[in-house]
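task queued by scheduler; priority normal; single chain, no ligands, no partner chains; default sampling; output format set to structure tokens
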Amino acid sequence: MKPIGESIHDRLRQQGRTVKEFADAIGYQRSNAYRIFNQASIDTELLMRISLYLEYDFFAEYSAEYHLAAVH
């Protein structure tokens, strides 16, 4: 599974949204938003805000990964 920050950045680009818009929506400064894209893990409250803004369930990605790992 790719790092969560990379997934967030990919989704942002797919939607054609700017980092400035993203940062404003989640209550971060633009420079701090760029740091998110390099993170391998993220606070759940922040991930919820990001998921709502991007209208994408990042938690589902982790849930699917968990279920795959639990089976093995």
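post-processing summary
- The first helix runs from residue 4 to 14.
- The two ends are 16 Å apart (CA to CA).
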